Amino acid sequence: MRDDREQWWSSPEVWGGIECTHVRVGDGYRDQIVENGHRARRGDLERIAGLGIRTLRYPVLWASVERNGRRDWRWHDARLAKMQALGIRPVAGLLHHGLGPDDLSPMDAGFAEDFGDYAEAVARRYPWLRMFTPINEPVTTARFNCLYGIWHPHRRDEASFLRMVFGSAQATVMAMRRIRAVIPRAKLVQTEDVGRVFAGPGLGYQADYENLRRFLFFDLICGRVDPSHGFWCKLVAVGVQVSELQTLCDAPCPPDIIGIDQYLTSDRYLDPDLAAHPHTRPGGNGRDRYVDVSAVHVAALEGQCGVIHRIREVHARYSLPIALTEVHNGSTREEQLRWLAEAWEAAQLARTEGIAVKAVAVWSLLGTTDWNSLLVSTAGHYECGAFDVRSMPPRLTALGTAVADLCETGSFSHPTLERPGWWRPEKSEAVEALFSVQGDEVLVLALREACKMRRLTLGPRPVLGVIRAERMADGRRLRFRFSSGLVVETQAQERPDAAVHAVLDLILDGETGHLRLSHLAMHGQFRIERMTIGAVRRVPVPAAYERRAGLPA
């Protein structure tokens, strides 16, 4: 019987996460903890605790602790002690998309044993920890590393993919065994992107293959990969010993909580109609050629994509407790709010259906850098989270305010939620206007276009206020004034698209005061300066972001 905390009328917990990928791309490494400034910046944990978050996915990454055969725990000692003092419970991640020290891979002989040694060392050093994610998203990582060649070791063959997934399963089982020898009550919170694959005519067989593949890691550690499983023969064919597979069947290590990492682009559609996607490079499987696109763009799949459907699938397959361990939308502020609202509502709905959804984790509280290119680009494309780290101290965003409300009351509201995200059909009923816009004709037109794209309603009696846009006398700057007292200045551009989107985000964040935005580029990449009377006080940006974005120091 479910205990009282699991009753349908209660809300799931609100967890948080900090994007912490440490991965090799080509000859270089990407470390998101450095790039989002968390490695060097003090006060982040206090800010996160201030939101009300009491469980946080947090890195204790093997490659960050161990170098040249020596372990340096000093940074983690300080941060984990601070979390203890703040009453934050970590979900300790030991490998997040990356590899071990010296690029040690789950495909390497001895990886599981060495990884187990490190996991035990973490447990002995921090015996108060209770939740662990030894290896984040093993199937997703193996796809990017070994099928698509995006990350090291940059392979593109199924054999490498299968060996990496199996090696990750062995290592996870070993890690939890070693951890539980020290912390008997330790829980495994195993994360994965389980997006479903849909297919056009003639490609159903490929979708069936990929839909089984997405569950391969969970099936392995749950002891379900026996001779009747669709991947048993494939694993044996690439060198996995029958005795090794049988060991996992005989001594499974099922997750205490299955973590679903669901994004707008997680669900996919395989389309054999190449002409319908002239700007997308086609792929294939050696038998057919097709284009792999986000299923959310396919109107015919409305009602089959999204968080609630993946929750139901995972529950039907495993009947284990679930958490939404990564909820993030790298988009404009209202779309971030709409995606969080959809995930939260899905979790609540699932609980009314008797599904034990424990938590919703707001991922990337400090934002992410270059995930729009899967970390291949070094352009410094920053996506905000609950905080915007392009200023110092980091600014609380509208998403952060929503998180604080969820933590306090179990719900949140915002006028932008009256209209759905772009991935959902528009409602037919009329909604209240959020803004009205006045001023320079070109800027007003740009604001109208931006609001239309973002489903922000304009009208003569706005709920939030009036935006007045003007060109300053010098002809080189633009000024936007908002009813709240916010004044934003930017440099003039031939097309002010980036400026108006950045201004709209600042307005929705509830920002006030006199700000100057510089180095403006598309997608809201900018530096923030806060103006004071008679002077300019620059709001610093983390040095790592400066380097990635190519901004002057």
User: What spatial form do the alpha-carbon principal axes imply?
Assistant: globular
Number of strands: 27
Please give the share of residues in helix. 25-40%
- Report how far the terminal alpha carbons are from each other: 59 Å
Strand content: 15-25%
Oligomer status: single chain
Radius of gyration: 24 Å
Please state the average pLDDT score.
Answer: 92
Strand order of the largest sheet: 1-4-7-8-9-11-15-16
Features:
single chain, 553 residues, alpha/beta, 7-stranded mixed β-sheet, 34% helix, disordered N terminus
Notes on the structure:
The structure is a single chain. With about 550 residues, the chain is an alpha/beta fold. The chain is built from 17 helices and 27 strands. A hairpin with a 4-residue loop joins strand 13 (about 285) and strand 14 (about 290-295). The chain is globular and about 75 Å long. It starts with 12 loop residues before the first strand and ends with a helix.
Q: Topology, pairings included?
A:
Layout: E1 13-17, E2 22-25, E3 28-31, H1 32-35, H2 44-51, E4 55-59, H3 62-65, E5 66-67, E6 70-71, H4 74-86, E7 89-96, H5 111-125, E8 131-136, H6 138-147, H7 158-182, E9 187-192, E10 197-199, H8 204-213, H9 216-221, H10 232-237, H11 242-250, E11 257-261, E12 268-271, E13 283-284, E14 289-294, H12 307-318, E15 322-327, H13 333-352, E16 357-362, E17 368-369, E18 382-383, E19 387-388, E20 395-396, H14 398-409, E21 435-439, H15 441-453, E22 465-471, E23 477-482, E24 487-491, H16 497-508, E25 514-521, E26 525-532, E27 535-538, H17 543-549
Parallel strand pairs: 1-4, 1-16, 4-7, 7-8, 8-9, 9-11, 10-12, 11-15, 15-16, 21-22, 24-25
Antiparallel strand pairs: 2-3, 5-6, 12-14, 13-14, 17-18, 19-20, 22-23, 23-24, 25-26, 26-27
Helix pairs in contact: 5-7, 6-7, 12-13, 15-16
